[in-house]
Amino acid sequence: MWSDNETSEDLLGFKVHADLLVDVIKDDALLPITIGVFGDWGSGKSSILKIINDELSGDDDELKDGTLVLYFNGWVFEGYDDAKSALLETIVERFAKHKTLGNKVKDSTVKLSKSVNWMRVAKLGLKNIVIPGATALLTGGTSLVPHLIGKFADFKPADLAAKLSGEDSGKFLEGIMKDVPEETMLVREFRDDFDEMIRKSEIKKLLVIIDDLDRCSPDRIIENLEAIKLFLNVEKTAFIIGADPRIVRHAIEFRYKTDSIQRADDRETRNRRIVSDYLEKLIQLPYNLPRLSDSEVETYMTLLFCKISLEGSYSSVLEKFSKQREENRYGTFGFGDIDDLITSKEREKLNNSISLIASLSSIITAGLNGNPRQVKRFLNTFMLRSRLVKVAKISDFKFDVLAKLMVLEYSASSLFRQLHQWQATQSGEPKEISELEQLVEDKDIASIVSNYKDWSVPEVVQWIAASPKLTGIDLRDYYWISRDQLSSSISGSSLVPTFLRILARSLLDHGSGTILKDIADNKVKTVLTATERETLFSLIEKEIVKSPENTTYHKVFIQFIESEVIGAIDAYERLLIKIDHDKVPFSLGSLYKLAERKNAEIARIYKLFKGTSGIYKAIHRKK
């Protein structure tokens, strides 16, 4: 099994990306600069940031080439009352506690800490700062904002208690808040004091790396970005942000959403402009990570299996891989390249992996979108199920067949379940998969579209064509091994990108029909890949299965159907078969009829409802 933690160990050949960004940071003429390392969830952003951190950081508190590197995980501040202030405070504290810089910048760090505390007061105000601060003083506790407690120092505890509980407590607190500096003044003072601290420290440059920003909620993402904006144009500074750009864009849209009274097309145009302007001003150098190619996935899988199978030879394998990448970055680094480096015992241990990697790298690349984290989690699940095969003592088991089915399980979970239904009624050997394989071999795509429409998607056709073939294979054992996932599939659990989880929550909590339509038309329909749409359907389906009486959840699929999102009507049909129709609100009947005016296909679902249910009567009620 493989750990899912970020690492500076380069199994992806991504050091070339890290080296490029290090070269940019080392160029004093390009500072100050903010770099965005952008890529999908699990694309390798964190590994690149770790490599950069290791390359530019000194040992302990020592400065390497005069560069101070601060590495932060943005998710750490998710639970803070004000992530912006928390990030600023952490940066200042790093200077204050540095063994060689602390004394040089002591005065500056004191002033900066005070500014950060006042920023928190200005943001959270009376309810969250002033009153708890006063209470802390009365009870002997420690305040969140020490400088604010100084405002109460002239009062005896009994007098302070009287003022807080008396009739004039509001005026008293307002008087306290009058002394809070204006935000613009705080920002200006902070920037000036920070610039002064950099000069006093005599460091050549400051590099701040912020990782995992895309795991945060939209509010926390914006607060972190607002903190970074305070440092823009401060000399000798460089910021690197690692994030999925789709999540960042969503957070900006969420924060600066426009008035729903506007026309939808005007609102969308303005939203795009706001997001683009915000990112362009904040990120001077966006760097987008490419998805892995077939050869890169095969190389990555080879190195992963080497990592868990080899002992003394592993370091030699990595060294040769690194050298080969410099000489030929387009070729595959496979087991043939390491044959002279490993022992006969290690070679025997790797034998089972060789054919598996060679036969499945192309469909894994397509099915998992060339995503390193998904590849690793896929292989972890595969290894776990492989162990179950051995524990259950299943004979004549083909592990490449299991791997192929698992690719379908993730990339098209509804088809995985359909194939399960076919084989369950035909002693494990469904005629449909044999027909599909023959049609693909004959390149008769028209017949696939006509007879197996859902299987005609190019990615699925590629999956059907890939080895091993399933014709003549008894699939019962393979589905028995995967039975834990038949209700939810991998796509509904460990492999779901954060972006899709956030998007699903935005849809389920949409708040208004205008917002729902906007997301359906401009994200689900046009931005997501077929695999991502399928995963999104599964996430929403789970919520409706748990709460079939929730009209708001049903509206999501109804809007998808209105917007003609590919696969939405099929997914909704499968969903309705699973739930208790007596719990489906009869008020949906009128919503179905309204949707039918825009997309007549929704009428397909009417026949699914049983005649005794309220929803059936609502649909068929005569006007």
From TrEMBL:
Limits of the KAP NTPase domain: 15-388
Top-level taxon in the UniProt lineage: Bacteria
Pfam family, one: KAP_NTPase
InterPro entries documented for this protein: KAP_P-loop, NTPase_KAP_P-loop, P-loop_NTPase
Official protein name in the record: Predicted P-loop ATPase, KAP-like
Organism, scientific name: Pedobacter africanus
